[in-house]
Fold this sequence. Notes:
Elements: E1 5-6, E2 12-13, H1 21-29, H2 38-51, H3 56-61, H4 63-69, H5 75-79, H6 83-90, H7 99-115, H8 117-124, H9 144-156, H10 163-172
Antiparallel strand pairs: 1-2
Amino acid sequence: MSGAVAGPDGRLRCPWALSAPDYLEYHDTEWGRPVTSVPGLYERLTLEAFQSGLSWITILRKREGFRRAFAGFDPAAVAAFDSADVERLLTDPGIVRNRGKIEAAIANARVVTELGQAFADLVLSYRVGERARPTADDWRATSPESVALSKALRKAGIRFVGPTTAYALMQAVGLVDDHLVDCWVPPYPWPTATPD
């Protein structure tokens, strides 16, 4: 049995997608779709790092607040943030106000800006090739690839990215297709040229 559950429209979905309307939309239209641009990958990395220790729904519901607070996730703009910006962000109710995560997001933006396309190339090099979609019994929070990606990102200077965060990033940006085998969402073709 795959573990997929019928949603309000009768379509089978990954069970987590049915726990909140926000999840349903995210699952159906974004989760697992390829993201290849530097800003897109920086955004997902930042959001996954902020999610660490929290529920994803908290981050998802604050996503627009994060976008406003972090200059639309433009790495160069965030890289220019200073201590006054950190203090501003610590008072922003539109985001998760955690000093360590805020400082990591800014430090990571500096690394991403310095690396440029090499950052995207590094992340995308951990794409898991074609494989069968999982069943509910195959659920995991890490993989050998996420352990390696976490290590490579930390070596490059990226903070707040352990193997679990790296795996969530891989799922979010389509490096691994973890929609359940009976989920209605079709596999997304990996782009060959145009970034998201």
